[in-house]
Amino acid sequence: MTYCLGIITRYGLVFGADSRTNAGVDYISTYQKLFDFSDPGQRVVLLAASGNLSMTQAIVNAIQQDLKLMESENIHTLPTLYDITRYIGNKVRVVQEQDRPWLERDGIDSSCTLLLGGQVRGEPPGLYMIYRQGNFIQATPETPFLQIGETKYGKPILDRTLSFDTPLEAAAKCALLSIDSTMRSNISVGPPVDLVMYEANSLFVKHQVRLRVGDPYLMQVRKQWEISLRQAFEQMPNIEWGYGEENVLMESGVGNGESGIGSRE
Amino acid sequence: MTYCLGIITRYGLVFGADSRTNAGVDYISTYQKLFDFSDPGQRVVLLAASGNLSMTQAIVNAIQQDLKLMESENIHTLPTLYDITRYIGNKVRVVQEQDRPWLERDGIDSSCTLLLGGQVRGEPPGLYMIYRQGNFIQATPETPFLQIGETKYGKPILDRTLSFDTPLEAAAKCALLSIDSTMRSNISVGPPVDLVMYEANSLFVKHQVRLRVGDPYLMQVRKQWEISLRQAFEQMPNIEWGYGEENVLMESGVGNGESGIGSRE
Questions:
Q1: Which of A122, A229, A259, B146 ranks highest by number of CB atoms within 10 Å?
Q2: CA–CA dist B263, B242 (Å, integer)
């Protein structure tokens, strides 16, 4: 399994990804899922990949080949982030066309989903999600984050704390906690965790970190977070139990007293 | 969708459930999913249901009928919680046998999953999850909670804060936040929220509450929680960005400098 997320705020972008892949529970390995295709000073292009590893590796390879062969259309020459996204969507389509029938006839899932974010000089930063079909959507100020892979465990913290106005450092912490929550609840998502913070208009990836298994910072974050959650419980107002109310849960019970259910004396 | 959870600690049980059901996004309604079949002073029996509504209603109805007709085997006469669980598992099997083929031929999901918890006089409290196949598992001190329905959004908070030693009031707050997180992230899970707290050996459901849409307590909990989470962010140690490190994300990029990718001057 995989968990990657991208966040866009008015201050820039945050990308995060785990590195665990598995083919069943008895074959677990580590693969990088977050890639930096930036051309420093000109453009920042970050790509995160989830889904079938042979598919996502083929896509990354195709992007790299176009760069190496200096094809006229490549990730460094295309004029806008939108064009880059469409270009990668086309790579997804080529790879799907090529391999999908062979996987399908053995019942293997060939799906893959990508996140693309960054900034091209002269444009504002952008964040996109590219589907296996090659089409894509863009994150907006109303929905300033996109997730791929095992998305649910890490979503509540984003829903509750993130907005387009969140400072970049806070967004990065939020991303890390979102990934840590996912790792805590799903063993097939695991470290190293790659984290990138990109300040809008810098056109340069200055802040990145790889947190490996047992990283002291990662352990400190987890410990501090659990302490904070417990403190938050203590601050929570006590539940006002409905002593006075009728026993609402027995309303649909049979008899309501006739058979003893629902009586409360 | 549905979200129900049961928690067992050394101090007793907590049950929580939302009340929203949907047949597609254009048909949403409210149904109670948490039922109290207790015989106060003798036994406490709580049942939470998820899955196909016609199935779960048929199961609840079958239980109620046996009580009404005073069948020799009913939820008030069976000697142990284990026997009650097996009895309900059998009800699940009867209902599945009866209706499943008719649903399947129209491609309708007939699955249902139940949580059963409580205490029979003379026994310790127990908590079980009953599968659609009628078999079941029991919660243990190592895994003191069970969830059914839309389980993922609400799991991180349980994983991080709950243990068999958690005081009952804290476990109830944890359950409420787990449900609230799920409601926040999945619109098909919604209020009213039913919450029950059962103190071990009291053989009596004393603490229960139904929190309706816009309930001031529910709103206060959500607000306070979001404030606490933001405070927790502030307490989190700052990320130590890997300024000194090589750009690890470009390790697998082409060229590493040759094409400009990976260079960091």
A1: B146
A2: 15
For B243: left if phi > 0, alpha if psi spans -120 to 50, otherwise beta; the answer is alpha
Which residue of A197, A249, A254, A258 is the best one to mutate when testing the B interface, meaning the one whose CB has the most B CBs within 10 A? A249
Q: Is the pLDDT of residue A258 over 50?
A: no
* CATH number assigned to the domain comprising residue B64: 3.60.20.10
Interface test with A, best of B249, B252, B264, B265 (most A CBs within 10 A): B249
Q: What is the mean pLDDT of the segment spanning B79-107?
A: 96
B106 and B46 share one domain: yes
pLDDT (tens digit per residue) in B229-239: 888 888 888 89
- pLDDT of the residue at B232: 85
For testing contact with chain B, the best of A186, A239, A250 (most B CBs within 10 A): A239
A189/chain B closest Cα distance in angstroms: 14
Residues B30 and B86 in one domain: yes
- The alpha-carbon gap from B234 to the nearest alpha carbon of chain A, in Å, equals 8
The pLDDT, as a whole number, for residue B262 is 32
pLDDT score, position A263: 30
How many domains, in total, are found in chain A? 1
Would residue A36 count as lying in a domain? yes
Phi and psi, residue B155, nearest 5°: -80, -40
Same domain, B171 and B247: no
Q: What is the pLDDT of residue B259?
A: 33
Mean pLDDT in chain A? 90
- Between helix B81-104 and helix B53-68 the angle, nearest 10°, is 130
Q: What angle do CA B235, B239, B242 make, to 5 degrees?
A: 165
Q: What is the pLDDT, as a whole number, of residue B28?
A: 85
Q: Which of B185, B221, B237 sits opposite A217 (nearest CB)?
A: B237
pLDDT digits (tens, 9 = 90+) for A205-215: 999 999 998 89
Please judge whether B249 and A35 are an interchain contact, meaning their C-beta atoms are less than 8 angstroms apart.
yes
Q: Looking at residues B206-213, what average pLDDT do you find?
A: 92
Minimum Cα–Cα distance from A178: chain B residue: B156
pLDDT at B254: 40
Q: Is A178's pLDDT higher than 90?
A: yes
Residue pairs spanning A and B at CB distance below 8 A: 230
Domain of B43, in residue numbers:
3-213
Tell me which chain B residue has its CA closest to the CA of residue A159.
Answer: B185
Q: Is there a single domain that holds both residue B97 and residue B223?
A: no
Whether the ipTM is more than 0.85: the answer is no
- Kindly tell me if the per-residue pLDDT of B22 is higher than 90: no
| C-alpha to C-alpha distance for A109 and A152, rounded to whole angstroms | 20
Residue A236 is assigned to a structural domain of this protein: no
